[in-house]
Amino acid sequence: MKLEVVMPKMGESLQEGTITKWLKNVGDKVERDEMILEISTDKVDTEVPAPNEGTLVEVIAKEGETVEVGSIIAYIETDASAAVATPAPAAKEGTQAPAQDAAPVVAAGGNLVDLIMPKMGESLQEGTITKWLKNIGDKVERDEMVLEISTDKVDTEVPSPVAGVLAEIIAQEGETVEVGAVIGKMSSGDAPIQAATPAQAPKEAKPVANVAAQVAPTQITAPVSGGTYKIPTRDGEDFFSPLVRKIAEENKVSLEELKQIKGSGVGGRVSKADLMSYIDNRGAAPVAAPVAQAAAPAASVPATPKAAPAPTPVAHGDDVEVIPMDRVRQLIADHMVYSKQTSPHVTSVAEADVTNIVNFRNKFKDEFMKREGFKLTFTPFFAQAAIEGLKKFPMVNVSVDGKNILRHKRINLGVATALDDGNLIVPVIKSAEALNVTGLARSVNDLASRARSKRLDPNDIQGGTFTITNVGTFGTLFGTPIINQPQVGIFGIGAIQKRPVVKQIDGMDVIVPRDMVYVSLTYDHRVVDGMLAGQCLKAIVDALENMNEKTVSI
């Protein structure tokens, strides 16, 4: 069967990409998810994986060629006996051939164009359909959003690659689909569409349950003694995503254990939810006897698999309102629990005199608003101070990879942002060390605005090396925030308060009113010790207290 390789969607505003390099030649065998070419867009350079195992039989788009998103750029033949067959004719510009294994299409006319599950991040291999925004037969403009999808890292909408009519829905709401798979079809003509069958019609919109809630309780098998702990991408018919491999290795889950878990993902893959459920419950399983050696007179009897008990429904009275968590809240909950399980959290707190910053902002905020078109907040000042601290103590700007420490040469600063629905997202200012206060203010305003209007690109929330969060918005003095994995530190900003403070002036102790703030540094004690954290926090406080009209320019 011949499968299409298409130009992926790399961002909401991007409509095309340029082929920079083919990593495989026609006739080469490729593994599923193996990178076969490099592409470049205005915002990101990345690699495109093979949608399936097979042979690259035709390259349509050549190196240096700029291609529209959704266009076919190559074909992979999955049937070894057919790999030497004559290549399929190249698709005409602006059109696409339908996938050979797709269900019958109900369009009465027009060219058929595939809607595919987009690649939303380097490590993501699948996404879940949360809601179809269009029904079969609806007219759709090019780039108009037709459905919503959700992954472990981001929720987003998928636009139509062409103007036309939604002809077919292949993946239903709640279904988890591999990246690159066809999820629907557009008819680029305006011919009438037959009525959809009940199976094809979009389901009524409803809250999507957490992935963990969609799967049956994971079968718990006794941990295997002396197993393989370096998890490969593929073992026989089993595929393990980068996220699953990382969690397994960090929690000492062997390959042998992974292969015993009944996966709920596409094709029976083990998902993050399956693995976390297994880790949470495997402690209740009896420890398996060591595997008998070849010379032993009799083999050990394997432990009988033990199913985790089904959760007992809780009855609530009339005085309780049950509010299902939305998708984002579930993801936040999972990420927070994962962080606490991964990192031993320690928090250090200091106090800073920010009177000069308050006076500076009060003096220039009107001028700044007139020039920039948005308010000058305190966030860029604190961001600048955090950057100064990380420059002096770069071993806080690190992450952990197994037994290795990764020291980042750039400071990619995450800024925790509250959304209108009460949820939280952390967009990232890339190479923040290159920006001054005004540059940081522009970046913070841009990312926060796009976060609240759901216009962030996947790249905007990836690659952070350190995070700042303002816990003092509503008067909280200080907090102990949770580390944003895989980072090892997060800087908390409390409420700025005018308080009486003892200062020494001309050798005399004097009580004066000052604008004071508590700041905190929460750090991963696996790699950041108290001395290093204290030094970094003091450097941040010093940077804050040294900001004034002479040292800061906007």
Query: What sort of overall outline do the alpha carbons produce when their principal axes are compared?
Result: globular
Q: What structural category do the secondary elements indicate?
A: alpha+beta
Strand content: 25-35%
In terms of per-residue confidence, which ranges show pLDDT below 50 for 5 or more consecutive residues?
Answer: 85-109, 194-225, 285-308
Please report the number of helical segments: 9
Distance between the termini: 60 Å
Largest sheet: 7 strands, mixed
- Count of DSSP E strands? 31
Can you walk through the features of this model?
With 554 residues, the protein is α+β, with helices and mostly antiparallel strands. 20% of the residues lie in helices and 27% in strands. It contains nine helices and 31 strands. The chain has helices at residues 211-214, 242-250, 255-260, 272-281, 327-342, 355-372, 379-392, 437-452, 530-545; strands spanning 2-6, 16-22, 29-30, 35-40, 45-49, 54-59, 66-68, 72-77, 112-116, 126-132, 139-140, 145-150, 155-159, 164-169, 176-178, 182-187, 219-220, 234-235, 238-239, 306-307, 345-353, 398-401, 404-407, 413-415, 417-418, 424-425, 428-429, 466-470, 489-493, 497-505, 508-524. Strands 21, 24, 27, 28, 29, 30 and 31 form a seven-stranded mixed β-sheet that branches. A hairpin with a 2-residue loop joins strand 22 and strand 23 (404-407). It is globular. Mean pLDDT is 80; it is low at 85-109, 194-225 and 285-308.
